[in-house]
Design brief:
The protein folds into two domains: 5-93, no CATH class; 113-264, no CATH class. Helix content is 21%, strand content 32%. The protein contains six helices and 14 strands. It has helices spanning 9-15, 17-24, 79-88, 150-157, 211-220, 239-251; strands at residues 5-6, 32-34, 41-43, 49-55, 60-66, 73-76, 113-122, 125-134, 160-161, 176-180, 183-189, 198-208, 222-227, 256-264. Strands 7, 8, 9, 10, 11, 12, 13 and 14 form an eight-stranded mixed beta sheet that branches. Strands 1, 4, 5 and 6 form a four-stranded mixed beta sheet that branches. A two-stranded antiparallel sheet has the order 2-3. The longest helix is centred in the C-terminal third of the chain and has 13 residues, at 239-251. The chain starts with a strand and ends with a strand. Mean pLDDT is 80; it is low at 88-109.
Amino acid sequence: MPRMLDVSDDVRAEIGDEEADRLLAGESAPGSYDCTSCRTPGDCEQERTSTVLFIGDETAVLAFAHAGCLPSQVVKVTEEQLQGAVRSINADQARSEPAPAAPEKAAPEQAVLGVTSGLILIAGELHPALVVEPTAPIARPGTVGSGDDFLPLLIEQGFMPVTELASTPAVLHGWSVLLAMGQLHAVLQPGTNGGRPVAWWQAHQPLQVTEGWRTAANKHQQVLMFAAPVGSIGRQPREDLLRDALDKAAANGQLVAAALPLAGT
């Protein structure tokens, strides 16, 4: 029985007409799947389903989503993000090109970016904000050692150091915050050579934000993103405590920020 699949032109161009036709004919599509967006079960034979192709530097993974959650599309991500997705997607949903085998060696635990949403009062007005803090130091790609290059790397991308939260930071064009159906999905950065935006950070599953946060985001059509090195902010249960932590990080020279345009609704 043919599956109720949608294969977009972009996905077809990447996987080829033959594979796309096999999917549409039901020859290579799974019957059931876990939606790559909401992570709840879906069934290609019972409901409209989108094909979503995640492309990294060396690997591509074909995943499936409820058509109501995501349209069929190609999403470019880092190889590290994609390998994490591979571990969570059933093998029969993956289409990957094997990388050359490398000797096994012990590796330090990968840092994870913690993202907290909140409303921040600046110049008498509430602004939607995301506060990003890694769980471990971030080293510059290709380097070894225990240094933390998280803030320098962001400054190179256009984020600006903040010494006090007296005014909103400048807009960083090319970056954006992706909201879909009122949930936070990703922070996007410019693609290489003027290509489509890619995910700098992507939620494993969409994050809920408050109604007040969504209202402020729709009003300003932008989100303020603050970033600080590990140990600078911590997990703050209230917005006033989050603001206090941001003020302290700024005073200590451990905060960068930018205003990112809003993508989605």
